[in-house]
TrEMBL record:
Family according to the record: Belongs to the UDPGP type 1 family.
Name of the featured protein: UTP--glucose-1-phosphate uridylyltransferase
Function: UTP--glucose-1-phosphate uridylyltransferase catalyzing the conversion of glucose-1-phosphate into UDP-glucose, a crucial precursor for the production of glycogen.
Top-level EC class: transferase
Self-association state and partner proteins as the record states: Homooctamer.
Amino acid sequence: MALYVEGLRKGVANGGMAQFQEMMRQQLESSMHTELEKLLDTSTGAERDVSKKDFEGFNNLFHRFLQVKGPSVEWIKIQRPPEDSIQPYDKIAARGLPDNVANSLNKLVVVKLNGGLGTSMGCKGPKSLISVRNENTFLDLTVQQIEHLNKTYNTDVPLVLMNSFNTDEDTKKILQKYTHHRVKIHTFNQSRYPRINKESLLPVASNLNMNGQNTDGWYPPGHGDIYASFYNSGLLDQLIAQGKEYIFVSNIDNLGATVDLHILHHLVSQPNGKRCEFVMEVTDKTRADVKGGTLIQYEGKLRLLEIAQVPKAHVDEFKSVSKFKIFNTNNLWISLAAIKRLQEQKAMDLEIIVNPKTLDGGQNVIQLETAVGAAIKCFDNALGINVPRSRFLPVKTTSDLLLVMSNLYSLEAGSLTMSPKREFPTTPHVKLGSSFTKVQEYLTRFESIPDMLELDHLTVSGDVTFGKNVSLKGTVIIIANHGDRIDIPAGSMLENKIVSGNLRILDH
């Protein structure tokens, strides 16, 4: 990067800016090509072939990265989406369902993004294998949901997992336990791209191996890679040949992302010429979602705007709940035939996300990534559907985990639904401190999960434990000062209370 910038400065000084820029770009691309060829030469057979295909995608991304001149959106050109481009869910659901739901379901494939590790929650291995409810993992719940559909409607909805090189091996081992379930499970791997040195803009890996120091040399390039890796795997063609028409894509840690029959019916019942190729489920923003990507109208197309694309001067405006009222849940419904067409035409143009990282040894690198929702602008008749908040229930932290493990939700056939005993449809705001970050530690701090049916807000900080059958209502704040410990006694009922260092319980 430094060389590139230095080169541009010299170019400006010499007056031949455009010419010099182009020369520098070509030089960097040539150097990158040479280094990638060297990496390929360190392996043979199938691994080399897979990496060669991955590198084609990486080269394309790297080429586009070098071409970028300034921000990817001009703020002045941003418009609110037209009224009919974001439909309320109620309007879609009001049309009802056909007599033969099975016909629609047999055209569907469920795809879960399964590339992430559980490291942010202190767990080893794939995040999808963390237990979230009654000993069921994210993957267990997903399989149960689809199996329930297949049994209820006598259908054949398959599950496809997009793994990364981080999760593939562990996931495949666990899949054996679902052999006798009524769900066909397929997997494919997202690409493996080389991390590049921030200064030289060349790969940091010395060979294709994934061991030792070299492990840090590789990364999965974001979920926008789904289109290319799905197509390259051959699975896309296989599913089209089986008569499948749409995929429903979501993050595996979003427990609200279940198959919605109304949205599916809306898609498959469109007349051929007006077929909607891409649906993005959005939901109303709250103050907790201000950083979420939103839908805008840009140069005549519906487009996803992420916070990373927003000029610094407009970040507060972007976060405003009054101007940008909705955000992307990353629940997407996409036409298989359209993905195939766009891949073959090389027309999938996704904005590049430049993700800077510092490796354990202190080396600064960058990762070039893309987001799956950014492709909305490439598809015909794309649509946003404003869905209930219940379809967005991500578990990113142990605070989220506490909510889904509690009596706020009931579990049936792999799906979580809000308890009818809760008077408000909104979920409480829960903020657990650093003593709760890791799942194992979090579990030791609760003898049983508290009753949270009437809770609005919970903040816990410091060394705090909960006895059995604790009930939390209204706003509860528990703060153990450094060196102090607070044990909430079994059977306690805390309503609008602040509990501080020496276990004084005060009215809030």
